[in-house]
Structure prediction request, 672 residues.
Amino acid sequence: MMKKKKITLKELAKNLNVSISTVSKALNDSHEISKATKRKIQKVAKQYNYTPNKPASSLKSGKTKTIGVIIPNILDRFLAKVLYGIEREANNMGYNIITCISNESLEKEKQSIQLLSDGSVDGFILAPSEDTLLKNEYEHFNDIIKQGYPIVMFDRTVTDVLCDEVIINNFVSTFDITKEFIAQKKCKIAFISSITELKISKLREDGYKSALAKHGLDSLSLKIKKEEDKQVTLKLFMEKHPEINAIISADDTLGTIAINVALSLGYKVPKDISIVGFASESVSNLSIPKLTIIKQHAKDIGKNAVNLLINKLQKETSSKKEVIIVKTSLIRKGSF
Amino acid sequence: MMKKKKITLKELAKNLNVSISTVSKALNDSHEISKATKRKIQKVAKQYNYTPNKPASSLKSGKTKTIGVIIPNILDRFLAKVLYGIEREANNMGYNIITCISNESLEKEKQSIQLLSDGSVDGFILAPSEDTLLKNEYEHFNDIIKQGYPIVMFDRTVTDVLCDEVIINNFVSTFDITKEFIAQKKCKIAFISSITELKISKLREDGYKSALAKHGLDSLSLKIKKEEDKQVTLKLFMEKHPEINAIISADDTLGTIAINVALSLGYKVPKDISIVGFASESVSNLSIPKLTIIKQHAKDIGKNAVNLLINKLQKETSSKKEVIIVKTSLIRKGSF
DNA sequence: GTGAAAGCGCTAACAA
DNA sequence: TTGTTAGCGCTTTCAC
Prediction:
């Protein structure tokens, strides 16, 4: 492998017959160096396509300009989109991201944090794994924070950990949509979810129930387990409850499936039954009619997380917990 | 921020009243150090939770144990799954990944490569952006290779660049499925794609056409542009060609949409029309019937890419171009 | 305005 | 078996 190795300050200095420190200062545009020398050095540096060696700068400065990102599941469109938002904003701010995928496992999450806390990153942006939340085990978060690595959590969050958070208005979003259903006389509303282990699912359900309670209406929830076939379970549910005329889906896929199940049962959508779901744009376009969605602005969530983290990184002061709430929007497509 | 900073070799050495190099050697289990000292030092190191500083090791060794990954689009399920495979295998092999998302833009791709070629990574795994392929601009790849950063490309590849490749049997996969359609007397087969700028789409179409030609049958392709509404365009197409009794979709979403369009037009699926698509498992489960898919084994692709790269990294010898072909499988669900 | 030198944390050749 | 030292590439203080 014919290595045309990257040029170093030292080599530049030799070529230019000046000292290393002069080159360094010139390239950092220091006022200590004369205009002429600076120009000359910068020109040659560009010629040789010089870029400072990252590990060396990191070692020297103690800053890596890199963010560790731990995502529970890259195939979840919402999480993937948050990751995209993180990457983009991080790049804009001059940061790289090292990505780990916990695959919803506490073990992998711990291991990833452990691995990246060797000076590879300046801080973390993460959503805890399901496993972590289930087992209520958060010491690895607190440990790492104590070691000086700030954490920003998004989507799924955790009390008892001193870190900033970026979340959405889960409760309010379902509260509002439920009220809207009721206003349109769609009062037999079901709430369906296959992510019931997550607190966000509970919050969404609470918003829905709370709105119903205000109007003295009954709630009806369907919780689908991981191992179940969503289509089959949902079909049985709808056959058992033919009175349902509106559905709120808490997760990315159930809304679309609900439309197709309803159609297969002979319903007209949205005439006979209205369906709304937390879902991404692209999934919402797969069904006929398209799914009306509660959009979570995933990219913004990522962007906010990055800014929160960089902020923490800059001021060394141990500031208090900051929480940003990114509001959802209802995007009307065909199903409501 | 109460920094309980990570302990260094130097501090460990002071605590233990030995020299830095003794500690270093002991922790690297060098035979130069006596069993007793090693045990003692290792114990204390564990106590203090010592881990070597990454930037320092990288600077010293010239190896980062980090792979730069450039993905055109994280919301594409196939690409996301490849990324997952990469991350997993990389971790298994003791590597981290720095992820950049080119967002199908040549500019961003160049910039990402540029940024990571400052000693942040040992090599790259990437799929070129659409933009790059369209403009046929590959110097940035060749430049970086000359600088000593090996590249492994996957999915979309490029001649004129000396790098390893991991691809699928695009041509054969559609050739085979087309033959199967014909064997079952489904001879009016359409090929639909919304990723027509990519060579993989062309290869898939060629496989399909070639099989048809062998039987003297006509081909019928629908190419959908980015800006078009897939549902609308597809519906018009199917109304215009009511004779169609089989469809092959080249991309992730069109297969599912085709099922729903067919149903909405009164077809029975798969009785009246069979539909097969390159798609991911999760998307295939959204429709009724579920979509029969040509599975690309994305995770394996990622895994192979990592192994290819690490291999290149280990032997310094400039070996020839290696190409791994990961075979697709037909996963039968309801639509064929 | 420029250069010498120390040091970030680590490894490894060489000395003792 | 253990310690001393140089050096990876860079920034920065201090001396000239």
User: Anything to note?
Assistant: The two ends of chain B are 60 Å apart (CA to CA).
